Amino acid sequence: MKTSNHISFAWFITISMLCLLANSQLTTNFYSNSCPNLFALVRKQITNAIKTETRMAASLLRLHFHDCFVNGCDASILLDGADGEKFALPNNNSARGYEVVDSIKNAVESSCSGVVSCADILAIAARDSVLLSGGPRWDVLLGRRDGLVANQTGANVMLPGPFENVGNITLKFEAVGLNLTDVVSLSGAHTIGRASCATFANRLFNFSGTNAPDSTLLDPNMVSGLQNLCPVNGDSSQLTPLDWNSTDLFDSHYFQNLVKGRGVLESDQVLYSSDQAASTTRSIVELYSKNPKSFFSDFANSMVKMGNIQPLTGSAGEIRKNCRVVNS
Ligand code: HEM
Ligand SMILES: *[C@@H]1O[C@H](CO)[C@@H](O)[C@H](O)[C@H]1NC(C)=O
Ligand SMILES: *[C@@H]1O[C@H](CO)[C@@H](O)[C@H](O)[C@H]1NC(C)=O
Ligand SMILES: *[C@@H]1O[C@H](CO)[C@@H](O)[C@H](O)[C@H]1NC(C)=O
Ligand SMILES: *[C@@H]1O[C@H](CO)[C@@H](O)[C@H](O)[C@H]1NC(C)=O
Ligand SMILES: *[C@@H]1O[C@H](CO)[C@@H](O)[C@H](O)[C@H]1NC(C)=O
Ligand SMILES: *[C@@H]1O[C@H](CO)[C@@H](O)[C@H](O)[C@H]1NC(C)=O
């Protein structure tokens, strides 16, 4: 009796572990035999791209985010075509870095043809971009396959926007299995990169019909600087750094900025200043502003979680030859 209990317990453990494995099919060594030079090939392309334009690190990080939130991390954002995600509201004239992804894919194809997915290239590119900008490193999980369809409506519905409040942003993260910690840590990506007037000009002159700038934008130097950059009826594609202290450095200034009322986007500043933040995100912003190490370690953890959103694995999807089109 006792022995048979032990045996069924052993089976229970074995089967539970197999189930766990089936649920987390991505692995760090997925290409170690089929494309042993993969990491070096990607690193070289990213290093060159960032040397040419520092901002590219930010743009590549954002591409992975905008890929994963729509139909999972399946490189659907890379598909060309008028009905693609590229032309959805959050991406049109804003998401960028597609040529760099092409150059990475070309380098990878010439070394190991038909093996590495575009979705995995986006995940490695995001990791390298953060690392080369001075941020944390993490082991990137691999084994995703590429999707067969883009989803423009999905991109419009699933991606958070700069005018949304904490509750709405949180709902969009929860819809893909991410929580409040992930909302705040991943928003810290705005420690690098740029935003256009179109995404924050509403805060500068007549915010919510108050005939005044957003009262949570506390830094007068930023108010006047941004007003000059984005005059009423001005060019809405003008850019400003998301982090005015250290534009291209991946550090914790983003959170120190929020505490001082120096967030560029409304969706940044509400994480600290809004009523909703008091019981949700504010304490996490305060923690990261004082403790850069906890930001770095939570950011790395959240990036792995984000990279695990609904990957296609096994024989689902395909390995695209060209990241812009599905194989014929
Ligand atoms: C929390 C909700 C978020 C909102 C509402 C949001 C919104 C935005 C907006 C409006 C811009 C400026 C786009 C433009 O003007 O062209 C931007 C830029 C950027 N976002 Fe976010 N974002 C969010 C979360 C994230 C996350 C989770 C990441 C990555 C992990 C990220 C990474 C970036 C980066 C790196 C840039 C700069 C891109 C560049 O310079 O090319 N954002 N975001
Ligand atoms: C994308 O932006 C261009 C202008 O750059 C505009 O002509 C086009 O209509 C936009 N596409 C969509 C789907 O909104
Ligand atoms: C597009 O995305 C929406 C929102 O996530 C989803 O409901 C829909 O099923 C997706 N459509 C396709 C074709 O994947
Ligand atoms: C939040 O989402 C609701 C439901 O979609 C919408 O009606 C409301 O306008 C949103 N509020 C903000 C500030 O985004
Ligand atoms: C979010 O999930 C992580 C695990 O991925 C966990 O450590 C963290 O405590 C969670 N945060 C909240 C606010 O539930
Ligand atoms: C400010 O916005 C409100 C509400 O949208 C509007 O009624 C008012 O005319 C605006 N003021 C100016 C000076 O444009
Ligand atoms: C950020 O920049 C402002 C204005 O230049 C400065 O007062 C502040 O000390 C800086 N903060 C950090 C953390 O470097």
UniProtKB/TrEMBL annotation:
<feature type="active site" description="Proton acceptor">
    <location>
        <position position="66"/>
    </location>
</feature>
<dbReference type="InterPro" id="IPR010255">
    <property type="entry name" value="Haem_peroxidase_sf"/>
</dbReference>
<feature type="binding site">
    <location>
        <position position="251"/>
    </location>
    <ligand>
        <name>Ca(2+) 2</name>
    </ligand>
</feature>
<dbReference type="GO" id="GO:0140825">
    <property type="term" value="F:lactoperoxidase activity"/>
</dbReference>
<dbReference type="GO" id="GO:0006979">
    <property type="term" value="P:response to oxidative stress"/>
</dbReference>
<protein>
    <recommendedName>
        <fullName>Peroxidase</fullName>
        <ecNumber>1.11.1.7</ecNumber>
    </recommendedName>
</protein>
<keyword id="KW-0560">Oxidoreductase</keyword>
<feature type="binding site">
    <location>
        <position position="67"/>
    </location>
    <ligand>
        <name>Ca(2+) 1</name>
    </ligand>
</feature>
<dbReference type="GO" id="GO:0005576">
    <property type="term" value="C:extracellular region"/>
</dbReference>
<keyword id="KW-0964">Secreted</keyword>
<feature type="disulfide bond">
    <location>
        <begin position="197"/>
        <end position="230"/>
    </location>
</feature>
<feature type="binding site" description="axial binding residue">
    <location>
        <position position="190"/>
    </location>
    <ligand>
        <name>heme b</name>
    </ligand>
</feature>
<feature type="binding site">
    <location>
        <position position="76"/>
    </location>
    <ligand>
        <name>Ca(2+) 1</name>
    </ligand>
</feature>
<keyword id="KW-0349">Heme</keyword>
<dbReference type="InterPro" id="IPR019793">
    <property type="entry name" value="Peroxidases_heam-ligand_BS"/>
</dbReference>
<keyword id="KW-0106">Calcium</keyword>
<comment type="similarity">
    <text>Belongs to the peroxidase family. Classical plant (class III) peroxidase subfamily.</text>
</comment>
<feature type="binding site">
    <location>
        <position position="85"/>
    </location>
    <ligand>
        <name>Ca(2+) 1</name>
    </ligand>
</feature>
<feature type="disulfide bond">
    <location>
        <begin position="35"/>
        <end position="112"/>
    </location>
</feature>
<feature type="binding site">
    <location>
        <position position="70"/>
    </location>
    <ligand>
        <name>Ca(2+) 1</name>
    </ligand>
</feature>
<feature type="signal peptide">
    <location>
        <begin position="1"/>
        <end position="24"/>
    </location>
</feature>
<feature type="disulfide bond">
    <location>
        <begin position="118"/>
        <end position="323"/>
    </location>
</feature>
<keyword id="KW-1015">Disulfide bond</keyword>
<dbReference type="InterPro" id="IPR002016">
    <property type="entry name" value="Haem_peroxidase"/>
</dbReference>
<dbReference type="Pfam" id="PF00141">
    <property type="entry name" value="peroxidase"/>
</dbReference>
<keyword id="KW-0408">Iron</keyword>
<dbReference type="GO" id="GO:0046872">
    <property type="term" value="F:metal ion binding"/>
</dbReference>
<keyword id="KW-0732">Signal</keyword>
<keyword id="KW-0479">Metal-binding</keyword>
<feature type="binding site">
    <location>
        <position position="243"/>
    </location>
    <ligand>
        <name>Ca(2+) 2</name>
    </ligand>
</feature>
<keyword id="KW-0325">Glycoprotein</keyword>
<feature type="site" description="Transition state stabilizer">
    <location>
        <position position="62"/>
    </location>
</feature>
<keyword id="KW-0376">Hydrogen peroxide</keyword>
<comment type="similarity">
    <text>Belongs to the peroxidase family. Ascorbate peroxidase subfamily.</text>
</comment>
<feature type="disulfide bond">
    <location>
        <begin position="68"/>
        <end position="73"/>
    </location>
</feature>
<feature type="binding site">
    <location>
        <position position="74"/>
    </location>
    <ligand>
        <name>Ca(2+) 1</name>
    </ligand>
</feature>
<dbReference type="GO" id="GO:0042744">
    <property type="term" value="P:hydrogen peroxide catabolic process"/>
</dbReference>
<keyword id="KW-0575">Peroxidase</keyword>
<dbReference type="GO" id="GO:0020037">
    <property type="term" value="F:heme binding"/>
</dbReference>
<comment type="function">
    <text>Removal of H(2)O(2), oxidation of toxic reductants, biosynthesis and degradation of lignin, suberization, auxin catabolism, response to environmental stresses such as wounding, pathogen attack and oxidative stress. These functions might be dependent on each isozyme/isoform in each plant tissue.</text>
</comment>
<dbReference type="InterPro" id="IPR019794">
    <property type="entry name" value="Peroxidases_AS"/>
</dbReference>
<feature type="binding site">
    <location>
        <position position="191"/>
    </location>
    <ligand>
        <name>Ca(2+) 2</name>
    </ligand>
</feature>
